[in-house]
């Protein structure tokens, strides 16, 4: 998500408490937030749920946007966290409705290749987050949000070398979990 200067200005004004700027900002970013949520979640309805949650989080937490980085960078983190949270919630609901844990992962041959692989990646993200939570944010910002290493370092307030190391280690962990299907 890369926004024009007007969007960045709206974000700064909204962070300072301008309600009109916040309303305009939310309208303007919604299509991009939905598109970005769709990268995480294979079903459009799930992506829409994550999008609405992300927009709500922006509205509630815009005052935390300090302007140290671009708004688009800050928003990447909000959307990624929202999509992962929505996925965990959907997974929990599925288990509750089924009454027991699923015995196996969805067979990608019965779903679209894209949807099946994204479910596998979300499962691997959840596993990595549980085992090594310090690695997941850097990986999501690089491989899903496609931010530059310097932007990630700035957003996470970490040295560039630490960011690169975390991404390298996270990818290694993913390869162990997903096998050759993750490159």
TrEMBL record:
An MF annotation (GO) of this entry: sigma factor activity
Domain (RNA polymerase sigma-70 region): residue spans on this chain: 26-93
Membrane-traversing stretches: none
Pfam family membership, one: Sigma70_r4_2
RNA polymerase sigma factor 70 region 4 type domain location: 137-173
Organism field: Actinomadura livida
Protein name from the UniProt record: RNA polymerase sigma factor
InterPro entries named among the record's database cross-references: RNA_pol_sigma-70-like, RNA_pol_sigma-70_dom, RNA_pol_sigma70_r2, RNA_pol_sigma70_r4_t2, RNA_pol_sigma_r2, RNA_pol_sigma_r3/r4-like, WH-like_DNA-bd_sf
Taxonomic lineage: Bacteria, Bacillati, Actinomycetota, Actinomycetes, Streptosporangiales
Gene3D superfamilies in UniProt: 1.10.1740.10, Winged helix-like DNA-binding domain superfamily/Winged helix DNA-binding domain
BP terms from Gene Ontology: DNA-templated transcription initiation
Keyword list, A-Z: Sigma factor, Transcription, Transcription regulation
Family to which the UniProt record says this protein belongs: Belongs to the sigma-70 factor family. ECF subfamily.
């Amino acid at each position: 998500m890369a926004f024009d200067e007007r969007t960045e200005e709206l974000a700064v004004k909204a962070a300072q408490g301008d309600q009109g700027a916040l309303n305009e900002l939310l309208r303007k970013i919604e299509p991009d937030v939905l598109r970005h949520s769709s990268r995480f979640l294979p079903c459009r309805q799930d992506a829409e749920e994550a999008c609405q949650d992300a927009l709500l989080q922006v509205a509630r937490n815009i005052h935390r946007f300090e302007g140290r980085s671009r708004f688009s960078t800050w928003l990447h983190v909000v959307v990624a966290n929202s999509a992962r949270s929505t996925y965990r919630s959907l997974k929990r609901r599925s288990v509750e409705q089924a009454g027991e844990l699923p015995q196996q992962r969805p067979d990608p041959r019965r779903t679209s290749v894209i949807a099946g692989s994204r479910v596998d990646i979300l499962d691997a993200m959840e596993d990595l987050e549980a085992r090594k939570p310090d690695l997941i944010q850097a990986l999501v910002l690089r491989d899903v949000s496609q931010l530059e290493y310097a932007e990630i370092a700035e957003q996470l307030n970490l040295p560039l070398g630490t960011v690169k190391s975390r991404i390298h280690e996270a990818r290694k962990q993913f390869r162990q979990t997903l096998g050759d299907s993750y490159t």
